[in-house]
Amino acid sequence: MSDKAPTDIKFHQKSQKLEVVFDDISYQLSAEYLRVFSPSAEVRGHGGGPLKLVTEKKQVKIVNLTPVGHYAIQITFDDGHDSGLYTWQTFRELGDNFESNWAEYEARLAKEGGSRDVKALYKKVE
Predict the structure, then answer these.
(1) Closest by Cα among 111, 40, 45 to 79
(2) pLDDT tens per residue, range 49-58
């Protein structure tokens, strides 16, 4: 797996997608996808165990992108999450494995009763 730097990175604010362009391929990764597959210890764990199931992030937004050296970006989301560094290799892995990652994520949501949508804090009384 290559850790070569992207040739371009563009943030599309309206669609909340981060476009990461390498010499041979480009990816458009949604804020939700980047958030639920964050490389942080909060999501990935400290010991390499299973990923924590992050729910209710369908509407999450990227509020800041901070370059870290010549090897990564720190992403700040509007839910306050800002830990974990998205290295060039991380972007490659997330892009290359999008379909299988997303299918597994949706299966876990269904199995564990999670939701992509924020749950209402109140119930409508009729």
Answers:
(1) 40
(2) 678 999 999 9
Strand pairing report for 17-21 and 26-30: antiparallel
**Model pTM?**
0.89
Give the start-to-end residue ranges of the domains of the chain. Answer: 8-112
CATH number (1.10.3630.10, 3.30.2020.30, 3.40.50.1580, 3.20.20.70) of 8-112 reads 3.30.2020.30
Residue 41: pLDDT band with limits 50, 70, 90: confident
